[in-house]
């Protein structure tokens, strides 16, 4: 009995102890599991936080980049629009306009206080036109080219080159055949219009109109004097003025002039004149014009002339 009573508490104790130990183990497991869950939860939270921060950062960067791209595109568009406007303005500035002042100035073309010279080339374009352009470009001089519509259609690229280099393209009719152009006054206007259309096409400017004509053979005199006077009126009614010349090199006056004769011709016909409109030719046969142009220019510079075009007069 004593043994049993002794044994029981021990057993009881053991059971209690075992129970307690199991409880402890369970508690520990719970704690571990809870801690593990907590740790996992924290890790997850951290990952989510990092991921969210990173995503937000990336989104912000993407938005900033997008804004940058849009602003760059807008800047580009703005620049392009500005460029287009400037080009259009430049184009418009190069379109001849017949102003009232221009009409008045043309009436007094042979009078001027200052010495001024208008280099004019008729009957082109031809293969002589480009060498003339090179000489003018070297010396930074602008001239006026009275072109024939038939030649414009034959050499549109040369016409464009003349225009692009800042020279003034004026109108000399289409055919240069007197019996055709002077058959009646209307023919003169028709040839002007036909030539103007050819120039528009060559330079790519549908609004171009020089408003300036030079009568083949000159306005005054000859077999067709009467028709020419009537044509002059008809042209003026259509806002087209005309100009002849008061000086010439004689490059077309004789068959084969020598360079000396050409320069002498200029000296003789320009003497004592302050304002000179010089007749020259850039037709196919007139290589002499190319050969003598540097001397002609040197002479005029030496005499104190400043170069102008009829664009300066009319517009
Ligand atoms: Zn001519």
Reported for the largest beta sheet, the result is: 6 strands, parallel
- Gyration radius, to the nearest Å? 46 Å
Based on secondary structure, the structural category is alpha/beta
CATH topology of the largest domain: TIM Barrel
How many distinct domains? Answer: 2
Ions, cofactors and other ligands present here are:
zinc ion
The CATH architecture assignment of the largest domain turns out to be: Alpha-Beta Barrel
Give the low-pLDDT segments: none
Rounded mean pLDDT is: 92
In N-to-C order, the SSE pattern is HHEHEHHEHHEHEEHEHEH
The geometry reads as rod-shaped
CATH superfamily (homologous) name of the largest domain: Glycoside hydrolase/deacetylase
What is this entry, summarized?
Helices cover 62% and strands 10% of the residues.
Structure overview:
It is a single chain. This protein is α/β, with parallel strands linked by helices. It folds into 2 domains: 1-94; 100-314, Alpha-Beta Barrel (TIM Barrel). Helix content is 62%, strand content 10%. It contains 11 helices and 8 strands. The protein has helices at residues 2-94, 100-107, 129-138, 149-154, 156-164, 178-181, 185-203, 225-237, 259-270, 287-302, 310-314; strands spanning 116-122, 144-147, 168-171, 212-213, 241-242, 247-248, 275-281, 306-308. β6 (247-248), α9 (259-270) and β7 form a beta-alpha-beta unit. The termini are far apart. The relative contact order is 0.12. The site of zinc ion has 5 residues, from loops. Zinc ion is lined by residues 122-123, 172, 176, 216.
